[in-house]
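Bench notes, afternoon.
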Amino acid sequence: MRAVIVDDEPLARRGVRLRLQKFKDVEIVGEYGDGASAVGKILELSPDVVFLDVQMPGMDGFEVLRALPREHLPSVIFLTAYEQHALRAFEVNAIGLPS
């Protein structure tokens, strides 16, 4: 599985990367600190899954999704530390998993 990590916080990206590296079937093909950079790379790299921060300056996670053509939309796992942002994810039919 090819994965991309998008989060404006380097520490958060590192945490996701460290967790994903435990899975031999996951290849991290890119890490980006802003939505604008991520859009082009997601189209270029065609990952299977994107770990996407909901709240980022400039272009948030929802704007990233809107910028991607539906036919190139990978599976998305939203990342957020804030409950109010998680609620927005459910508005776009996200599925919540117990922590």
